[in-house]
Design brief:
heterodimer, A: 308 residues, Dihydrodipicolinate Reductase, domain 2, 2 domains, 6-stranded mixed beta sheet, B: TIM Barrel, Helicase, Ruva Protein, domain 3, 12% strand
Chain lengths: 308, 339
């Protein structure tokens, strides 16, 4: 069985890490082209060293490459703004699909552990955010046992693992992740917080999930969360529950006031996660990078199932 | 270029931390009005962690920011209504909502090494016609020259003023002096410099005065020190000192003394003072807002607050990582069980 040819647009941290994963791990995807805008970027020079065809002229350059004709899947690891332009250029080529790793979210959100059964006709899917990939499975795990009124996540990442694109567009993380907590996680209302920590040596990515749900059997919720963690581990080996799941009952007599929902009571579930990266492009601390590229790789491999 | 002294009250923002963000709407309006009458230059209103801070992580407020802000600009005759945001928690949309409610000034707060997550918000606030301060938190964790480089990032993005923000109340007077001096050396003369202190090592007022003597003109303070940890520089004390120094400012000492004792002290369910726990914050260099969350975790898991705070300092946790308090507590609990 021959591998399906793919391209990556964006030669920053995310694009480069994804390239390494596809080159070294994928049994079904073949790196055909690496696309950047800076000929001197580390990502493009790594691609050249590995014998991958490159262009530094963005998506326009990609469309002119000899490799373009056979490429079936394009991973976009640029920015939300650039993705809109890239999709405009790629959309007319009906035999090609795109996995969007930016917060643009033109296509539906995809989190492999939750909604992997994507329609084969879908040509643009969005990978939410690193924090979303790490936390929304947990919101969904609670929600399949007890209706989640409110889901809140806190993602702490090492400063060194946040590239200039992430830093210049931090609102996009907040907005996209909150929206996906609702749409994919199933919470009535979602809230996302991101914190950059500059400690040296850099700290491994941490994610905390708080949900307020209807009162339910705590053991059922605990089991559902453990099952979900195992599911995410199948494509992100460094993903783990760092503490046992914590519960706190919020009684009707002492409710919390949640913006948009009003006074709410029920069961508060707190889940403390740790995401260690595989150390492909950035070291182990960059779990944020790893979970995004691992999810994207899994998604790309799922997309080509019907092709191969 | 000599800038006039500009006193910004933070009782209704930083002070939120001291009472778990539970000001009633009318109470807050009354305090705001008293501050305005007493002649402070600016009054900051928001959840303690800035707009949209209401959450499990930081504590839900008694009201939304929008409810607190609503109608305040109408009762104010003198002071500038301001607010604060942390990129990563609040977004530009929140800033726009605040502008619609009459907020004319905002501080964009980042950790002292992460100024480059703020330019988007600084530019947006300028576009909304706001006065903008850059707020470099946990300033003790960055050396003066490097902190000044971060200040330059905020200035370049359009900030009118950049603050040395001693969130942990861990700076001593030389540390403040060196940082403000480093700012003055690199910032444009028209860019103002601000100082925001916490009183954890009892330097709240002293550090503010040192900063002023080095060229800071925007001074933060709160009534009766109402703020996170051991509180901020107490406003009435600062104003008394400024009077004695003959510094020119527009605030009335006696009105502020009355407001501090009559309006604020009765609200302080947990005393805002230097004690074992709040001193530990300054000593270990820990974000002052961690105080009540750590006390709660200590109580829930049967641990010692001071030990939790010191461990948070060892792990180099920064502002906003309140979720790691319970994480640390659970680690300590597991260790205790092993032993």
């Amino acid at each position: 069985m021959s591998k399906i040819k793919v391209a990556i647009i964006g030669s920053g941290n995310i694009g480069t890490d994804l390239m390494i994963k596809i080159l070294s791990l994928s049994k079904t995807l073949e790196m055909s082209a690496m696309v950047g805008i800076d000929p001197d970027s580390d990502g493009l020079s790594r691609a050249r060293r590995k014998g991958v065809a490159t262009t530094h002229e963005g998506v326009d350059g990609l469309l002119k490459m000899a490799e373009w004709r056979d490429i079936k899947v394009i991973f976009d690891a640029t920015s939300a703004k650039a993705h809109i332009y890239n999709w405009e250029k790629i959309e007319p080529f009906k035999d090609k699909k795109i996995v969007d790793l930016t917060p643009a979210a033109i296509g539906p959100y995809l989190i492999p552990a939750i909604n992997f059964e994507i329609d084969d006709s879908l040509r643009n899917v969005n990978m939410v955010t690193c924090g979303g990939q790490a936390t929304i499975p947990i919101v969904a795990a609670v929600n399949r046992v007890a209706k989640v009124h409110y889901g809140e996540i806190v993602a702490s990442i090492a400063s060194k693992s946040a590239g200039p694109g992430t830093r210049a567009n931090i609102d996009e993380f907040t907005d996209t992740t909150s929206a996906a907590i609702e749409k994919v996680g199933g919470a009535e209302r979602g809230k996302a917080i991101i914190v950059l920590n500059p400690a040296e040596p850099p700290l491994v990515m941490r994610d905390t999930v708080f949900t307020l749900s209807e009162m339910a059997d705590k053991e059922k919720i605990r089991k559902s969360i453990h099952d979900m963690v195992a599911e995410v581990q199948s494509y992100v080996p460094g993903y783990e529950l760092h503490q046992e799941v914590q519960f706190e009952e919020i009684p009707e007599s002492a409710p919390v006031f949640i913006e948009g929902l009003g006074l709410k009571h029920g069961l508060r579930t707190s889940v403390f996660l740790k995401v260690a990266g595989a150390g492909h492009y950035l070291p182990e601390y960059a779990g944020n990078l790893d979970i995004m590229t691992s999810a994207a790789r899994a998604c790309g491999e799922r997309m080509v199932k019907s092709l191969s | 270029m000599k800038h006039n002294l500009y006193i910004q009250d933070v009782t209704l923002r930083d002070g939120m931390h001291a009472i778990k963000h539970q000001y009633g709407k009318e109470k807050l309006k009354g305090i705001c009005s008293a501050l305005d009458k007493a002649g402070v230059d600016a009054i900051e209103v928001a959840h303690g962690d800035g707009l949209a801070g209401g959450s499990f992580n930081y504590g839900f407020g008694a009201h939304t920011d929008w409810d607190w802000l609503e109608g305040l600009s109408e009762v104010m005759t003198n002071a500038v209504l301001t607010t604060l945001i942390l990129p990563g928690i609040a977004t530009i949309d929140d800033l726009k909502k605040a502008a619609d409610l009459g907020v004319k000034s905002v501080r964009i707060a980042t950790h002292c090494t992460e100024a480059d997550i703020a330019p988007q918000h600084i530019a947006a606030a300028k576009k909304l016609g706001m006065d903008v301060g850059g707020f470099l938190m946990m300033a003790h964790m960055n050396e003066p020259k490097k902190l000044a480089e971060q200040a330059l990032v905020m200035e370049a993005a359009g900030a009118d003023c950049v603050y040395v923000t001693d969130s942990a109340g861990a700076l001593m007077m030389d540390g403040v002096k060196e940082r403000v001096r480093a700012f003055r050396e690199v910032l444009k003369p028209e860019t103002e410099i601000g100082i925001h202190c916490h009183h954890n090592l009892s330097f709240g007022v002293a550090n503010t005065i040192v900063a002023m003597q080095e060229g800071a003109n925007r001074l933060d303070a709160s009534l009766a020190g109402m703020g996170a940890g051991a509180g901020n520089a107490p406003l009435e004390v600062l104003v008394a000192v400024l009077d004695k120094m003959g510094a020119k400012h527009g605030s009335d000492l006696y009105q502020l003394m009355d407001a501090a004792d009559d309006l604020i002290r009765p609200l302080q369910t947990r005393p805002v003072r230097v004690d074992r726990e709040t001193l530990s914050l300054g000593y270990a260099g820990v974000y002052s807002s961690f105080l009540l969350h750590s006390e709660r975790a200590a109580e829930k898991y049967g641990l010692d607050t001071r030990e939790i705070l010191v461990e948070l300092g060892n792990r180099k946790m920064v502002g906003g990582q309140e979720d790691m308090i319970v994480d640390v507590a659970l680690d300590m609990l597991a260790k205790k069980k092993e032993a």
